[in-house]
Write a structure and sequence with these properties.
The chain is 43% helix and 18% strand. It is α/β, with parallel strands linked by helices and 302 residues long. It has 3 domains: 195 residues, Alpha-Beta Complex (Spore Coat Polysaccharide Biosynthesis Protein SpsA, Chain A); 51 residues; 31 residues. Helix 7 packs across helix 9, helix 8 packs antiparallel against helix 9 and helix 10 crosses helix 11. The two termini are 25 Å apart. The relative contact order is 0.12.
Length: 302
C-alpha cells in the first residue's frame, strides 16, 4: 500500500529551534516524499540553514514569502501553510502533515502514524503527544486524546479534503477535529513512548507574552462557537497551570472581550450546534466519555 506523505512547515525566524526538527525528520525511519518549508519572511539565519539542508536533501523544497514585518499566528500561519499546499497536487500524496519547526521527533514517528492510519480506515487525523524539556525531565503539555496536535497534524489526504481543509483563523486546530467527528471520522492522539515528541517552544505562548497567548485562546474558543459555561469550565480546569490563576483569567477575558465586541464567529451553524451538543454532554459525563459516545455512534453508521 502506498505511503507517500507530504510535510508542510510554515516558519519564521526559527534558528533557535529548527536544527533539531530538521535533523529529526532526516533521521525518520520513513522519510517524507516531499517536505515544503515555507519561509514567511525570516530575518535571522533561518534562510541560510534551510538552503543548506535543501542542498543536501532533494526532497526538501523551500518557498520564500515576502517579509510582512512581524511574526504572525493563526491566520498568518495558515496563509503560509496554504502557500505550500496550493503549490502541489494533494492527490499525489496519501498523507499530509502540517509540521512546526520547533519540535524534536522520535525516529519512527511518521512510520507509526501511517501504520495506525492503514489499520483504521475511519482515522482522519492523528498525532503523538507534546512534551516540554524541564531539566532532565520531560513534562506532558496536557493535550486531550480527542485531538491531533496543531504543531504536528498528520492527515489522510482524502480526509483533509473532505473537511474542507483548515480554517484560516485562530483555533483552526480545534475546528478541524470537531469537523472530522461531525462527518463520521476519528481524530485522536496517543501518549506512547515512541510517539512522544519534544515541543521546544511552550504551548500557549505567543510572539508577545504568555498572557497574550491565553487571551488568544479565549478568542479562539469564542470564534469556534464555545459557550460561556464551557469556557468557564476550561478556565477553571487550568487554574493551576502557569501563570497560576492569571493565565485562566486572561483566557476567560479573551472570550468575554470577544463577546462584548461582537466579534464574528465561525460561520457554520450546523458545526456550532454539533459543538455545543458535544460540550454540554462533556460537562455532564466528561470529555472522554462524550467523545467515545460520538465515535461509537459514528462507527454504527452504515
Amino acid at each position: 500500500m502506498s505511503r507517500k506523505y507530504l510535510l508542510i512547515s510554515p516558519c519564521r525566524d526559527e534558528e533557535e529551534y529548527m536544527l533539531q526538527t530538521l535533523d529529526s525528520v532526516v533521521a525518520q525511519s520513513e522519510r517524507p516524499t516531499l517536505w515544503l518549508i515555507v519561509d514567511d519572511g525570516s530575518t535571522d539565519a533561518t534562510p541560510a540553514i534551510l538552503a543548506r539542508y535543501a542542498a543536501m536533501h532533494p526532497w526538501i523544497h523551500i518557498i520564500t514569502r515576502q517579509n510582512r514585518g512581524k511574526r504572525a499566528v493563526g491566520p498568518g500561519v495558515m496563509d503560509a501553510f496554504y502557500t505550500g499546499y496550493d503549490s502541489i497536487d494533494p492527490s499525489a500524496f496519501d498523507y499530509l502533515c502540517k509540521l512546526d519547526l520547533d519540535l524534536r521527533l522520535p525516529p519512527r514517528y511518521f512510520e507509526i502514524l501511517m501504520d495506525r492510519m492503514q489499520a483504521n480506515p475511519r482515522l482522519a487525523t492523528c498525532s503523538g503527544k507534546a512534551y516540554i524539556q524541564a531539566g532532565d525531565q520531560l513534562v506532558n503539555e496536557g493535550h486531550g486524546d480527542e485531538t491531533s496536535l496543531g504543531m504536528t497534524k498528520f492527515y489522510r489526504s482524502t480526509s483533509f479534503t473532505a473537511i474542507g481543509g483548515f480554517v484560516r483563523e485562530v483555533f483552526w486546530d480545534g475546528i478541524d477535529c470537531h469537523r472530522c467527528r461531525m462527518l463520521g471520522m476519528v481524530a485522536c492522539s496517543w501518549d506512547e513512548p515512541a510517539l512522544r515528541f519534544v515541543h521546544l517552544r511552550p504551548e500557549g505562548s505567543s510572539q508577545v507574552n504568555v498572557y497574550t497567548g491565553r487571551m488568544r485562546h479565549g478568542f479562539g474558543q469564542y470564534f469556534m462557537g464555545t459557550g460561556f459555561v464551557y469556557m468557564a469550565a476550561v478556565a477553571l480546569r487550568r487554574l493551576d497551570q502557569a501563570p497560576v490563576l492569571f493565565g485562566s483569567l486572561a483566557m476567560l477575558w479573551g472570550w468575554l472581550r470577544s463577546a462584548l465586541q461582537g466579534k464574528q464567529r465561525y460561520q457554520d451553524p450546523a458545526f456550532r450546534a454539533f459543538l455545543r451538543q458535544y460540550q454540554q454532554r462533556a460537562l455532564l459525563v466528561g470529555k472522554h466519555r462524550a467523545i467515545a459516545e460520538i465515535d461509537s455512534a459514528n462507527a454504527a453508521r452504515p
